[in-house]
Amino acid sequence: MADETHEHRSGFVTLLGRPNVGKSSLVNAICGHKISIVSDKPQTTRHRIMGVLTRPDHQLVFVDTPGLHKPVTALGARVNATALEAGHDVDVTCLVLDATQRFGTGDRWVADRIDIGESVVIVNKIDRADRAQVLEMLGAAGQLGAREYFPVSARTGAGLDALVEHLVSLLPAGPAFFTDGEVSDLPEERWVAELVREQLLAVTRDELPYSIATEVVEWEWPRVRVDIVVERESQKGMVIGKRGAILKQVGERARAQMPEGAYLELRVKVDKDWQRRPDRVERLGY
Q1: pLDDT tens digit string along 167-209?
Q2: Strand, coil or helix: what is 213?
Q3: Edge to edge, what strands does the sheet with 223-230 contain?
Q4: I need a surface site. Which of 47, 125, 147, 175 has the fewest CB within 10 A?
Q5: pTM to 2 decimals?
Q6: Which residues are bridge partners to 264 per DSSP?
Q7: Burial of 252 (0-12, 13-18, 19+ CB in 10 A)
Q8: How far, rounded to the nearest angstrom, does the alpha carbon of residue 256 sit from its chain's CA centroid?
Q9: Predicted confidence (pLDDT) per residue in 112-169, tens digit
Q10: Pairing relationship of beta strands 148-151 and 213-220 according to DSSP bridges
């Protein structure tokens, strides 16, 4: 029950930034649950995903978005649009920067597409950067004229409490949008499909992940079948691996994160140049 001496606050906070700045890791760390898949490969997130932090006197709904980048395919254009749309009609917008990188034209491009004067800048990955790098990024970002700046680490948790406290202070008074115990708006089927894609990102070659999509095609719990979609016949063999070794590894890693007793079946199919065809991008849920 909320403290009656305080108004209950609730609202939506969108995280925007270039690929691989750690937006998904931040949402997972703050919410205390694995909401979004993570990878060291850029453009891991393709959907807008909400993560929910509920406490007695407030509820923060974080909107994790795909990394904004220069698109070269229909898929790239779609995920960019998804990210920018997520910045509309929210209570707080956060620009996430990577402390290990220099402030660049990509960061400026994102900043120019939001109301930066009303936004919060989060400088992530301070655990991986030295003091000089953090100060350089904060100095460069300071020229943007944002509302506040927070150096944090999603990996160690440094700075996250102060960030959450500030974000709560920016929220309006209002009721909770999600019931206690709900941690995401992501349907369970989509979460399993993303889980499989996460493991594919971890074990396949660098050039392959961008050609992969995953979708649940059968859900009769505890039996789940996921199709892994690739663009060329040669990629099918790369995903399966010699004597099925890669596919087996992906299945074992994904199943380990699913509820006990789950039976996961993986199937690989070819859909030629799917990410360059807007109709196929849409049918695959993007």
Answers
A1: 999 999 999 999 988 998 888 898 999 899 889 888 876 656 6
A2: strand
A3: 213-220, 223-230, 263-270
A4: 175
A5: 0.79
A6: 224
A7: exposed
A8: 21
A9: 988 999 999 999 999 999 999 999 999 999 999 999 999 999 999 999 999 999 999 9
A10: unpaired
